[in-house]
Amino acid sequence: MKTREVAWRVFASEYNASTLEIKGEGEKAPSYVVTPLGAMVNRVFIVGLLTDLQNLGTEGEPYWRALLSDGMSKFYLFAGKYNPEAMVVLSKLEPPAYVAVVGKTRTYSPEEGKIFVSIRPEKIIRVDESIKDNWVLEAARSTLKRIDCMEEAMQMESPSVEDLTKLGYPQSLAEGVVRALPHYKEVELNRYRGMVLEAIEQLLPERSGEIAVPADMPMAGPEEIEDEADEEDKEELVLRLIDKLDTNKKGAPLADLIREAGKAGIGEAELEEINNSLLDKGLIYEPTIGKMKRI
Amino acid sequence: MNKEEIAPHVKEIARVLEGKVKEQDIEKDLDNYLNVYRMSLEASKRHIVRKYGGDPNSLTKGERKLLSQLGLSEQSVDLLVRVMSSNTREVMVGGSPKTIESGILADENGNTVKFTVWDLSKADLKAGENYLIRYAYTKEWSGQPEVHLGNRAVVELRPQDEVKVPDSVVVPQVGGGYSAPIVAKVADLRENMNNVTLTGRILALKKKEVETPSGKKAMYTGIIADETGKVEFTAWHDFGLKDNEVITVSNAYVKGWKGIPRLSFGERGQVTRPKVKMPTVDELSRAVRKSIDELERTGGASDVIVTGTIVDIKKGTGLIFRCPECNRVVQKGVCQVHGKVQQVPDLRIKVVVDDGSAAITAVMKKEVTEQLTGITLKSALDEARETMDPEAVGHRFEEQLLAKPIEVRGNVISDDYGLSMNVTEAKFIELDVRTEAEALLKKIEVI
Which of B288, B296, B269, B310 is nearest to B399 (CA)? Predict the structure, then answer.
């Protein structure tokens, strides 16, 4: 029975940190990218904000590069003539837009021991925010499962697929974890726990201040936390200003924004930082240079 | 270890070294490691293979397994078991008589398996004793693994308290083609299982008259369920079964069709009516939720619910045309069997649903398709006529379906192309993201 490769739900920062590739031997044997948390990925399902889309090829023979943000990091997507279906969709898309992608892993190794991972889309479709939110939940759940499995494996003297499946982890994950462990050695699990928390935080914006941080995660001092809360307020203020100044629906002119923000006590340098943060979070974008618009 | 005990291991090392080294030399080395340096058998073998430039990983490794984990063709496996029954008998091997021993092993989890000892000088398993069996192998018999102890086998008598078999495991004496009894839940049933004992509630029951060579015969078919799922059954004998009652069937066997198991029991089967707790008819009638990798392991199931995301739309989705004779999909009005036919329009969806654990093909017939998409066959035909493009509906389905979370219900079969579900009910899932996110957050906070 030939089985279709499962589509993994991973966040970009876990996927992009992968440096282990298992090449399939023989014809049609699948290749896998093994992430630091032990996902053995041949196919992915990802949903995020398309933030950048460029044709690196020519008009006649396009070669698209797309950046897809999961709110924390970005996936790199490449599509050329061998992905006709994806190309057609990409050529009609305009960032920013929420899109869902089913794709295959792709690696590029400029030199021995170094690999860069990206995604070759099989299917792309524009989706609404609820699909994105649902995906974030799924990716969070599946990442937590990998963190758990990796943690169990780290505590074993000589972790084996058998021992991990006995604990109830699926065979595919157990295999990935057993392969990932000797390659990545000490994986900072709390970094990934933090990442999952941040992802869920996106879904519960008003809770962002009170989210518990795992015990041994580097804690920010109380002042810094206050600062962050302050930041949030200022971001909120800038967002409101952008809405107010966006009179013709083509975006708020930056000059007006600087003036109004100045009145509210936000200097030009600070405004730029806030704008960058909002751009990163996918809350605003620059339809044309010098204009800011809400998404 | 004496010379005789060492011999099979020498042979194995020689096999791994592909005859590059004389067996006498290997024997000398192995004897040296084992009896002079007192190294373990495993380590000694690896050392010798490495010494002569072979790959120690090619040695069969004895791996400790539970009986439930046994595969159908284990090369070398270790088991900690209680011998439930054991008998010797004579068989003819290569023209000369040979005494072998066979019986039934059980482990702490109450699983049982049939065993055969082919070399009584290596092992003699007494009923009622516990043993650590090493370097055994398994072969398939009627879809079940059977444990064999050959000339490589090593057995060690273990204390009585090391393996405690649950009282519920009762093993009759071994007869000829007897296989060990398997106490199973519905979810454990696999094609070709024999001597199955299962407890469940009858959800549906029908009497049928069938013609057999020995005249008319009454048979009973229906559905029996426990908390792990539902299975269709056939009883070839009148056990006085009644709708909704809870029964224990023993000495039943399992036939299957494309991975969907079907429980059968005849005159040799037994039906008792135990006083046990079993969910109500209503509770059992609901389809059981399964993850797709679970279905991949079992190979099929009756009436299950799967949730996942649609990650691919297959060809043949949308408006299709069928042959009125054989129902095959026709291309341009031509059936591959019946030639030019008066084609019949139909609506269908074929998609891949993926839940992050595995993937399954879900096939929806017209009624399910219409209900899910809100597009009827009639409006699809109108649209095709207007746009002059019979594929337009398929494209519209793709936009409606791709990347959507969905819940599908139906029977799951497996064949050469993997798992597929004949969908009887389908609906898009609307998740309450806030609630789910908060629940997940609580889970992390607990850690």
Answer: B310
Q: What's the topology of domain B289-428?
A: OB fold (Dihydrolipoamide Acetyltransferase, E2P) (2.40.50)
In this prediction, residue A244 carries a pLDDT of: 78
User: Which amino acid, B303?
Assistant: D
Q: A24 and A168: one domain?
A: yes
Q: Which residues of B touch A162 (CB under 8 A)?
A: 63, 65, 69
For residue A154, is pLDDT > 90? yes
Domain end residue (candidates: A159, A179, A206): A206
Q: Is B362 on the interface with A (CB under 8 A)?
A: no
Domain B182-284 has CATH 2.40.50.140: yes
Nearest CA in chain A to B352: A4
Rounded to whole angstroms, the Cα distance separating A80 from B117 reads 62
Q: Could you give the CA distance from residue B301 to residue B259 in angstroms, rounded to a whole number?
A: 7
Residue B61: its pLDDT value, please?
65
- Measured distance CA(A18)–CA(A108) in Å, rounded: 12
Do A132 and A44 sit in the same domain of this protein? yes
Are residues A2 and B418, on separate chains, in Cβ contact within 8 Å? yes
Query: How many C-beta atoms lie closer than 10 Å to residue A175's C-beta?
Result: 19
* Domain containing residue A242: CATH number: 1.10.10.10
Residues of chain B with pLDDT under 70: 60-62, 168, 170-180, 445-447
Interface contact A204-B312, CB threshold 8 A: no
ipTM for the complex? 0.71
Shared domain for A155 and A85, answered yes or no, is yes
The CATH superfamily holding the domain B63-162 is Nucleic acid-binding proteins (2.40.50.140)
CA distance B342 to chain A (A): 33
State whether A145 and A266 are in the same domain.
Answer: no
Q: Does A100 contact B at CB distance below 8 Å?
A: yes
Q: pLDDT for A37-46, tens place per residue?
A: 999 999 999 9
Helices (H), A93-221: 129-155, 161-166, 171-184, 189-203
A13 and A48 housed in the same domain: yes
DSSP reduced 3-state for B359:
strand
A184/A275 same-domain check: no
Given a cut of 50, is residue A225 above it in pLDDT? Answer: no
- pLDDT tens for B135-167 read 899 998 877 889 999 888 888 888 888 888 877
Which chain A residue's Cα is nearest to B398?
A125
Residue B260: both structure tokens together: 């969907």
